[in-house]
Amino acid sequence: MLPADRRTIVVCIGNELIADDAVGFEICQLLACKDARVEYCSLGGIDILPLLQGESDLIVVDAVQLGAPPGTIHVIPWESLPATATSISAHGLGLRETIEIGNVLFPGTMPERITLVGIEGRCFNRTIEFMSEEVHRAIGPAVKTIEDLVYGRP
Amino acid sequence: MKKSIKIDPVTRIEGHAKVFINLDDDGRLENAGLVVNELRGFEKILIGMEADRMPHVTARICGVCPTAHHIAASNALDHAAGVTPPPAAMLLRELMYMGHIIHSHSLSIFVLQGPDLVLGLDSDPAERNVVGIVKANPELAKIALRLRTIGQKINEMVGGRGTHPVTSVAGGITFTLDQEKKKNIQEWINEARGLLPTVVPAVKGLLLNALDKHPSMLTDWVAPSWALGTVLDDKVSLIEGKLRSIDETGTIRAEFGVEEYDRYLQESVVEWSYMKKVHINLDGLHEYRVGPMARMNAIRRFGTELADAEYAEFTKLGGWPCHLTVFQTYARMIEMIWAIERADEIINNQAIWGETRVPVSFKGGRGVGHVEAPRGTLIHDYEIDEKGIIRAANLIVATQQNYNIINRSIAQAAQSHVIDKPDDTALLNAVEFSIRCYDPCLSCATHAIGRMPMEIAVTRGGSTLKTIRR
């Protein structure tokens, strides 16, 4: 059951043509979660802000490089997000800056809870057919992780 | 004296600026420049692909100006196939493009250059970033982000996708307008128009304030050069028209169709950078500028009320032709005003409801097309065989053409901030700011997160004096 006080938006980020970076897009295709609004946002960053409509929970799904083995699924609450670890560097504004800006400009639509579901990637310089095996295997479990978050399951 | 300049492959990261400043034995500036290690491998990647795919594939070259590549490629294919798209198709391509210009310029003015203007060159780099600008001026930031969103919505509706549009094709466009879409676009345009009376004086005030604080920008940061822009019916035009070149005094020196670009523009390789320099080749080689200020200098007229009125203000403050490096921000804002007015004209032009495609086949040969990208003239040149396969490709991008002038501006910043001045922070700030006035593509990926990763190597008499990194 969906907790009564929750409305969740899931924003999936990444270039759908690039190996492990495409993991956010692939997850977006599989998320059939009726109780959350799912959006794909290829670049992330500041473009996330117009998508927010006052949901209580924001889940950001993206490939990350935090130094863990490929395919590792990180579930990181906003408070614990490392200052320098903001998904892929070339996406411009990181999640942390984006949320900081949102809190200043649009306090009314900012979520109460923000969680990054980051899938550790390794290959970011080849095309989609070179997605790492470990990352590919992590897609299913990541979808389940996200659904658990939406339904507030431990 | 022998100089050796080392290009360290470790710094081959998109957005990593590497700058060199060489002094002679007496400590006088010998030369300075920007080393660009981005590899434009696309010219090789495209070979062997079907020509029809060029508008989709080349849009992927850049996440910041994809629509520029998308339309330049379409124009080049029209030329190769010997077709003229119907008037409605050109209007719709232009409408998509106006959305792109609004989006790109608002990002450039507010997110990339805004921190320098709002917070000042001397402010702490840790604060001088987009989060800082938002905190310092939240109302302006909100408007800037809204303009950016509006631009992107127009681009997305007509282009089929926001970041990498897909609807423009050889011979026309696959988008068709209906009353519902027209209504949406008109509402966005009206909203953008409504924001202008607030945003224009605010940005101008910030710029003038920055000049008050740094008067040397008006005297030392002047880079007289030739300029190149596109003209149609004696007005600034971005997706069709002739290329016009003026010299540093404003005299028109050439006007030519883009298919003749290789007669007038000469590319050359430098040993210390992957980026090829380009000169105008007309009675000798001339350095030139492209982009909003170059277009204004060369064409001088937009043909819309607000933009022309603001341009009159611009010339009062900056003269004509204007060579003030920092005025490029002002020029960008005027072009954004025009893009909003022009989008309004297009959506209300009855011709937009006509046929949008003509049949296309490639019989073999060359296709050259261009647009004025947000940062300046962008040319696509393809050799296509009789089966419709790309056999050769040449792309000339804006930043390449501004390269000579960017390097000159770095030298000026070095002259006013490094010679006999020991302050590394001031040097980094001045060099960074002078580069950003041209809004080269490498700045977009990096500055927004707070500061441009930068390495400045200062040599004296051929040996390294110091290397400043951050």
Question: How would you describe what is shown here?
Answer:
Chain A has one domain (8-149): HybD-like (Rossmann fold), CATH 3.40.50. In chain A, 24% of the residues lie in helices and 21% in strands. Chain A has helices spanning 23-30, 95-105, 133-150; strands at 8-13, 36-41, 57-64, 73-77, 113-120. Chain A is globular. Chain B is an alpha+beta fold and 470 residues long. Chain B folds into two domains: 9-40 and 408-469, no CATH class; 42-400, Cytochrome-c3 Hydrogenase, chain B. The relative contact order of chain B is 0.19. Mean pLDDT of chain B is 85; it is low at 1-14 and 443-451. Classes of the chains: A alpha/beta (154), B alpha+beta (470). The interface between A and B is medium-sized, with 20 and 23 residues.
The portion of residues assigned to helices of chain B is 40-55%
Q: What is the average of the pLDDT values of chain A?
A: 85
Biggest interface between protein chains, with counts per chain?
A-B, 20 and 23 residues
Largest sheet of chain B: 5 strands, mixed
**How many strand segments of chain A?**
5
Describe the global form of chain A.
globular
CATH architectural name of the largest domain in chain B: Orthogonal Bundle
Regions with little confidence, pLDDT below 50 for 5+ residues of chain B: 1-14, 443-451
Shape of chain B: globular
Within the largest sheet of chain A, what's the order of strands? Answer: 2-1-3-5-4
- CATH homologous superfamily grouping of the largest domain in chain B: Cytochrome-c3 Hydrogenase, chain B
Strand content of chain A: 15-25%
Number of domains of chain A: 1
Radius of gyration of chain B: 22 Å
Structural class of chain B: alpha+beta
Please report the number of helical segments of chain A.
3
CATH class of chain A: Alpha Beta
What is the CATH superfamily label of chain A? HybD-like
- Give the termini separation of chain A: 13 Å
